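Ticket 4471: requesting a sanity check on a complex prediction with flavin-adenine dinucleotide. Repro inputs:
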Amino acid sequence: MTTAAAPTDLLYSEAEEELRSAVRALLTDRCDAKSVLDRAGTGRPHDPALWNTLAAGIGAAGLLVPEKLGGQGASHREAAVVLEELGRAVAPVPYLTSAVLATEILLGCDTAEAAPLLRELASGSTVCVPAVPLTLAPGAPLPAAVRDLGDGGLTGTVTSVADAVAADVLLVLADTGLYAVPAAAARLTPRIPLDLTRPLATVTLEAAGGTRLADAGTARAAVAGALLSGAGLLASEQLGLAEWCLTETVGHVRSRHQFNRPVGSFQALKHRLARLWLDVASARAAARAAADALATAAPDAPLTVAVAQAYCSGVAVRAAEECVQLHGGIGMTWEHPAHLYLKRAKADSLALGTAGHHRGLVADFAELPAP
Amino acid sequence: MTVITAEHLLTRVQELLAAHPPAGTDRGAFLRARFDAGLAWVHYPEGLGGLGAPRSLQVVVDAALEAAGAPDNDPRRIGIGLGMAAPTILAYGTEEQKRRFLRPLWTGEEVWCQLFSEPGAGSDLAALGTRAVRESGSGDWIVDGQKVWTSSAHTARWAILIARTDPALPKHRGITYFLCDMHDPGVEVRPLRQITGEAEFNEVFLTGVRIPDAHRLGAVGEGWAVARTTLMNERVSIGGMRIPREGGMIAPVAAAWRERPELRTHALHQRLLDLWVEAEVARLTGERLRQQLVAGQPGPEGSGMKLTFARLNQEISGLEVELLAEEGLLYDDWTMRRPDGVDFTGREAGYRYLRAKGNSIEGGTSEILLNIVAERVLGLPPEPRDDKDLAWKDLSR
Ligand SMILES: Cc1cc2nc3c(=O)[nH]c(=O)nc-3n(C[C@H](O)[C@H](O)[C@H](O)COP(=O)(O)OP(=O)(O)OC[C@H]3O[C@@H](n4cnc5c(N)ncnc54)[C@H](O)[C@@H]3O)c2cc1C
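Returned structure tokens:
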């Protein structure tokens, strides 16, 4: 049976709000819609200078890493705030992949071999991404595509690896354990992504050499744990994205006139936006609950994360879809940033497990079995 | 001024329990003593059932008293008094009114009802036509009119009432707010049978009802501002409830799902999970709202909770009837009763389904609340309207 939830802090602390302001100020300056669009057009969306300031300057890359390993010793609550802001700006930085997923995998390994790499990640000097499909979900079977042919020769193909083109190091889950493989030692085939701000590549390893960081059992547990954190924190990115869409749309319908009235004075639109506001307010509670459950290692964290993912994916997609629709013609243009948000929202709804997958997890945790 | 802490309050609770052991004390006497000890609503002023303590500490008191087996004041039965009349009297009442009304209101000795809606004025409440005319000699008010959908009018001792005192003014300006004695001659309550078969609400006919001026709340003609305080509290009091995970309407459906595997279908499973997730998110949203209030950052989420609960209650109870298959064709009891209050869990699925339909109508319809969210939270332009400057008597009806 489900138990009563432990007390959960669903608000933002002052320190979290300060972190938010710092990240938002940086993104306002250096990651406006126009520059994101321009970069996305080149097929190389990442902005290394922006990453450097975010990761090293603000110290956002090391939030999840303990101080003794060179990090900030903060928690998932702070990382969630960073992701809200990144979602609000559809920022093309490898935060979710490097500072959350790869970092959590390395923390989960907790081995001497992993520590130096973890320091580099925390300082923001190295970008490291897990070589797993972006769609890999917590609770799903882990892939077994990469085999160790002996002598450190890793062989196999992994599809849909997010941010691989920005990575210095790939974390490879092979049958014999977890390996750190220099990105240069792998063949990367960029694919054309739906979400222009989070590039995807096929990673092909042909007897690639790497450093072994953990044995197979440890590695698999670490990856499973990282997927849980990643899914929980993705909800905050989705929240930030949805919030931008709502705010932007409300601003637009207030100033756009048709029929001698602001279109936002028509009740059909007012009610739609009021409903969307309700959904976004609810998504905030769900995302905060997930971040807090992860930060406090609450026993019900897997359920709380599944609830957040089952809920927030849909809200982000709906917010972006409403944003396009209520902007009318300009919402369909390439120049208006709405499409970047729609593409990110839709891709996010597949990342780290679909809402349907997470509902299935809810069914397990809440003991509501399928027929 | 010293800040009152949880420890202070717990000491007071112990003193109350020592002086009035729940086992040997009459329920009414215990509740009166609790009120006098300032432990009724701790954020109210001293002498009026409170101690001027932070509102957040009420839960500490409630939990300690519940653990000690103390009787409660049956908040479900006196919800209108607690949630609406009390905060309005506190905000607008004279000292005398506060002293006269708050104590028996809180102890439940006097039940309250709300005489606002009329056959011709529901969503457009300010259009109401019930008249209150001042008698020149006595200064008393003589009230004539009809109210409708008045919950608990049959159990109520007092009512909050709004009436028109100047038909020549635009509709919002000619209204005055009164406290009406339901036992007065001229007050006639007739049960109004509803969709569930029972009569929770009533029609109320007011014929020459005499209300002394001392029972006017707020200034003459300022009743709309007072009424807005009541309405705001009405909406917030719904979002303020604290429920455990899988509490509320989702509980009986989840239980039926677990206990009756033969009822399960794949289509229902998807809907159940969707609603389970939404109910959990609504619970968290309510919890976040509560934490915001405690941290002194009142957010606009309050008006949203009523909307969310109305929709969820309706969808979940609809699913429950379907899940029950053949049993869903049956109803537990159509007897025309006049209950004390709403009882969602004491009845069966069909009752829940039908009663939940009222959740999006009572206390402001969902359409009106969406307007409020759109205009006051999102800042979208108001509906164009042409009734603002017209005298009430010249409005079309
Ligand atoms: C169970 C229950 C208990 C109640 N208890 C009490 C009570 O104790 N005391 C009391 O005073 N009242 C009570 N009411 C009355 C309740 O407050 C009114 O029914 C409610 O405010 C709606 O008014 P109406 O019924 O006149 O509907 P109307 O205002 O006639 O509305 C009809 C429809 O039109 C829609 N509508 C109206 N105006 C607009 C608009 N501007 N934009 C869009 N749509 C609009 C409404 O949403 C509704 O769907 C109770 C009602 C119920 C169902």
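Notes from triage: Residues B 113-114, 116-117, 122-123, 149-151, 201, 358, 361-365, 367-368, 371 surround flavin-adenine dinucleotide (CB under 6 Å). Leaving this open until the requester confirms.
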